[in-house]
User: Fold this.
Amino acid sequence: MNKCFIVVLILLQSCSFFRSINPDKDRDFTTDPVANPIETTLDSILKDPEGYIGVSVIFDAVFNKVHEDIWSPVLTKFTPEHYISFSVWLPTDEITQKNTANIVETLFVRKTSKHIQGVFYAERYQNVTIKGKVANAFNNLPWIEVYEIVSFGKMAKVEHNTE
Assistant:
């Protein structure tokens, strides 16, 4: 009886169902996931998110804030248990305090990433260069796993509306 139980446990452990629970199952830890990213613009990624799925990218943006509440764990790999979310503006946008229409909220960094401090280091309205990989295109938006905020630039020009 005990031998049968052990055999069943071993079979279940190798079952793809249990493998799918592991968020790292598709990650290759032997190579740098973004060793040769394609230099592009966030605007280009937004215009064709499906065309960038699986592509390592590097692009400029203007940092907005950490902890956006946009999660779709059923349709994407991003969960609040494993990732921190944040948002950015396109660097070409005219940024105002009330301009929320052009905010891209679907950027995520793994909580175990050695580069996570960059997300907390960046200030609102600061120009940043982001390196990551487009993981999904859900709701016609690119869901980007960020591996690193490569550089921190000057503060963007912000119009403070009093309306």
